[in-house]
Amino acid sequence: MANPNSKELILSAAERIMSEKGMNATISEIASEAGVFDSHIYHYFKNKEDLMFSVTKKRNRKMVEELKIQMEGIREPISKLSKLIWWQLYRLQTHKDFSKIILFHCRARRNYYRHASHLETMRELRNIFTHIIDDGISEGVFRKDLNRLAIWKIVFGVMDLLNIINLMNEEPVNVQSDLDAIMELLIPMLMFKTNKVDKKNEKAARIMRSAESVFAQKGYEGASVRGITKKAAIAESTVYDYFKSKEDILFSAIQEGFQDSERSFSFKDHLKATHTQLNLKTPLDKINRFIRYFFYLGILEPDFALMFVAHGIYNPRFYTSKAYPVYKNYLKSLLQCLDEGKNNGSIRLEVNNRVFVNMVLGAFSFNIGRWFLPEPRYDIDKMKEINALIDLFIRSITP
Please, is 181 exposed, middle or buried when counting C-beta atoms within 10 Å of its C-beta (0-12, 13-18, 19+)? Predict the structure, then answer.
């Protein structure tokens, strides 16, 4: 009489053997490993190929269920996407036999793409992925013109390749640092990215953008006008057609950065459109979104963020520069939301607006320092840290 667990034993044996041999594995050796007769395998599977594909079906089904559980309670679209990517990287890293089968022995076989293993898994993953993107668009977090299929290919393609490289021992893969690096590339694709180059002042914009990079890498004292112009690929003398000095370049770049960030993230329009387009019905919703976008500068524009913190916030001359009024104006929306919340009772009257705003700015400054000084950190889950900070900020002001 056949063991009632024969099918599971066969699948486990097939995963171990076929991860190394693929279709070169024999039915006899799989049966021997599983402790069953050869005929038992054909009782459950049509042929050797069906057996191999069924190995991935079993593992995929379990992984999708685990993913659904892990994503419960996660509301913010970027956090959901981050969790999806982490899960995919993690499962391929921790189940190497499965990874070898699916990446080296299934992907190149035409029949795999018609098999239930592939079709069912892709259908469920695409549904999860599409809901994340659609939620991000409807909430105003992601661009409305996103090509979902293109993003899908990018996300799942890079995860496959990173794991192939790891399996071939070409490069060690750290799930957390790779997730962080992937998200830093994806966020500018998904969100409206700062555009600092306009045709009318193209050279000035190029100088400021190059300055951001040089100031971030070398610091203000270590940077030179010559180094900035070299990076911008323009003549050094051209700088003085637009800027008076290195300091003028610095504060102009900060000024332009906050002006562009306001346009890029559409903070003012964003807050005006709350009841219609973005469904931000409460002051707390608006504050949450404002702080989130502000912290995203550290991911979207790391050079600008580091330059602003190191040579703006911690520079006494910044507070008498032309950039400071622009920066103060940038913060008005947050102050207005705090007052609005106090008026409708959703924010405690005891909250000191000035202290709260500086609490947010202080946390941002420390975050940027930790992320990028003395060297950029790739082992930090930036999205997780941002979410944790926002939770605490909102908790601090609610009744």
Answer: middle
User: CB–CB of 77/136 below 8 Å?
Assistant: yes
Ramachandran angles phi, psi of 108, nearest 5°: -90, 0
> What DSSP string describes 109-135?
-GGGGGSHHHHHHHHHHHHHHHHHHHH
pLDDT tens, residue by residue, 154-206: 988 888 888 888 788 756 667 777 888 888 788 888 876 544 445 447 888 88
Euclidean distance between CA atoms 14 and 37, whole angstroms: 14
* pLDDT tens-digit readout, 259-283: 865 444 433 443 343 333 345 578 9
Q: Is the pTM of this model over 0.70?
A: no
One-character DSSP codes across 163-191: HHHHHTTSS---HHHHHHHHHHHHHHHHS
Both tokens of residue 107?
């992907």
Q: What are the chain's domains?
A: 1-45 (1.10.10.60), 50-190 (1.10.357.10), 254-397 (1.10.357.10)
**Using CA atoms, how far apart are residues 2 and 51, in angstroms rounded to an integer?**
18
Q: How far apart are CA 120 and CA 128, in angstroms?
A: 13
Instruction: Evaluate the omega torsion of the peptide bond into residue 325 and state whether it is cis, within 30 degrees of 0.
Output: no
For residue 346, which of 394, 391, 390, 389 has the smallest C-alpha distance?
Answer: 394
Position 331, amino acid: L
